[in-house]
Design goal:
Largest sheet: 3 strands, antiparallel
Order of helices and strands: EHEHHHE
Radius of gyration: 15 Å
Strand content: 5-15%
Strand order of the largest sheet: 2-1-3
Number of strands: 3
Structural class: alpha+beta
Shape: globular
C-alpha cells in the first residue's frame, strides 16, 4: 500500500474529562479539544518532558495541545490549570497520542467522544 494513503490533515477531537472526583469537585464534566494527530516534535516532546519532569516545557506543550472547540489555545501564556484538572488532561492527551489511528479507524468509547 502506498504510504501517501495514510497522510491526512489533523482533525479536532473532543476530549471529555469525566473522572468522578472531578465531576464531584467541579459539578460537571470538563471538555477540551485537541488534534487527533500532532507533528513528531510535539509527540516526542510531550513524552520526554513528562519523563524528565520538566514542568515549564510541559506547560508550554499543554498550551499548544489543549484547544477550544474552534481550535484556538484554551490557555493563555499566564494561565495554568488546577493540578487535578491538569493531571486528568495529561492522562487524556497521553491516551490519545499513544493510539495510532488510520483514516478508517473509529474513536473508541471512553475518554474521547464526538
Amino acid at each position: 500500500m502506498d504510504i501517501s494513503k495514510f497522510a491526512k490533515k489533523p482533525e479536532l477531537i473532543k476530549i471529555v474529562i469525566d473522572d468522578p472526583a472531578i465531576i464531584e469537585k467541579y459539578d460537571e464534566e470538563i471538555t477540551f479539544y485537541m488534534y487527533d494527530s500532532v507533528d513528531l516534535s510535539t509527540y516526542f516532546d510531550f513524552f520526554a518532558v513528562q519523563q524528565n519532569k520538566d514542568g515549564k516545557k510541559l506547560n508550554e506543550l499543554l498550551r499548544k495541545i489543549i484547544l477550544t472547540e474552534d481550535g484556538k489555545p484554551a490557555l493563555k501564556d499566564d494561565e495554568l490549570l488546577p493540578v487535578d484538572v491538569c493531571l486528568e488532561a495529561l492522562v487524556a492527551i497521553n491516551n490519545n497520542l499513544g493510539k495510532s489511528k488510520t483514516k478508517s479507524s473509529t474513536p473508541e468509547t471512553g475518554t474521547q467522544s464526538e
